Amino acid sequence: MDAEIKASAPGLGGRNWLRLGSMREAGLIAIMLALCVAMTFASPHFLTWGNFRAMLMSFSIEGIVVVGMTILLIVGGIDLSVGSVVCFSMVVSGALFLMGLDPWTASLIGIGASALIGAAMGFFVTVIGLNHFITSLAAMVIVRGLCLVITKGTPLSLFTLPPGFKAIGQGSFGNVPYVIVIFVVVVAIFDFLLRRATAFRKVFYTGSNEKAAQFSGIKTKQVKFWVTVLCSTLAGFAGVIYMSRFGAATPTFGAGMELNIIAAAVIGGASLNGGSGTIFGAILGMALLSVVTSSLILLDVSVYWQDMIKGCILLAAVSIDHFLHSRKS
Q1: What is the annotated signal peptide range for this record (predicted)?
Q2: How far apart are CA 283 and CA 187, in angstroms?
């Protein structure tokens, strides 16, 4: 079966495609190194552990969401609701904790509720026949509304969270925060699965050539459904870590987060057309955006310009992706 799909999906699993992915990742590393060298001369505060720790903390939790988004992009989907789902997980977990439930159980319920949102989107995509863009756009608005309804528009103060739970987002192993450790573990697991696990090959096959995958016996609708659930579940997991880190749940948290998430995945090589991408590449894309943001802050560039520059980087990445796929076609 694998051989049939590889034959029908141009470049999938072949050396040329792997070489292209490696070139992109190497290119991102080269760009970041060049930027770091330049910033070392531009600002004495850049090349310090404090700054690098701040950069790692800034994208580690978002990086967990990027993992799910990357896999969803590979299968040919997209999720605009991840920011709202992150907030929803925080709000549900926080509200249940304030009602007397222990934070661990409340967090599991919050993550489960996030997974149900993914299941609902997966249903509309695979059964009703809507596309991911419209479905997730509607979910983004609905879930954000639910956050406002649950909190009545007021932030939930969770300063009474037990120290053991707060340690997830605020504690550290030596000089390395637990958040970074969790992030590295999640990335390592899913990067390995995406590269090596037979089950995850179906994600690439479905995204590259869905009809060929169907003819080869792959249940592509099930693949899309479960990948959509996975993306929302990881967003819910990230929401719990944010709640632990900040000790609060704000109903407007995560607004606009989807821009950074999608930008990181696309910059890292995930195609909006599906069928290609790597977890490692997406994390490099996230790291590049973090380095750019840190550099702009140290150079005292206005926050309004920062958003515009990030948008231009995303546009350039999408343009390159379109050019590469046009050549492949």
Answers
A1: none
A2: 8
- The reported pLDDT for the residue numbered 66 is 96
Exposure b/e, 112-149, CB count within 10 A at least 16 = b: ebbbebbebbbebbbeeeeebeebbbebbeebbebbee
pTM: 0.88
Higher pLDDT, 24 or 301: 301
Beta-sheet strands, E only, within 54-200: 156-157, 172-173, 176-177
DSSP symbol at 304 = H
Is residue 29 within 8 Å of 228, Cβ to Cβ?
no
Residue with token string 């159980």: 105
Do residues 12 and 6 lie in contact, with contact meaning Cβ atoms separated by under 8 Å? Answer: yes
Q: Cα-flanking dihedrals φ and ψ of residue 177, to 5°?
A: -60, 145
The predicted-structure confidence for 215-251, as pLDDT tens digits, reads as follows 988 999 999 999 999 999 999 999 999 999 999 999 9
At residue 9, does pLDDT exceed 60?
no
Quickly list DSSP for 237-286: HHHHHHHHHHSEE-TTTTTTHHHHHHHHHHHTT--TTSS---HHHHHHHH
Q: Which two tokens stand for residue 62?
A: 């978002």
Strand partners, 308: none
Question: pLDDT tens-digit profile of 255-264?
Answer: 889 988 998 9
**Looking only at Cα atoms, what is the longest distance across the chain?**
59
Q: Which helix (H) or strand (E) holds 99?
A: none
Q: Which residues pair with 69 in a beta bridge?
A: none
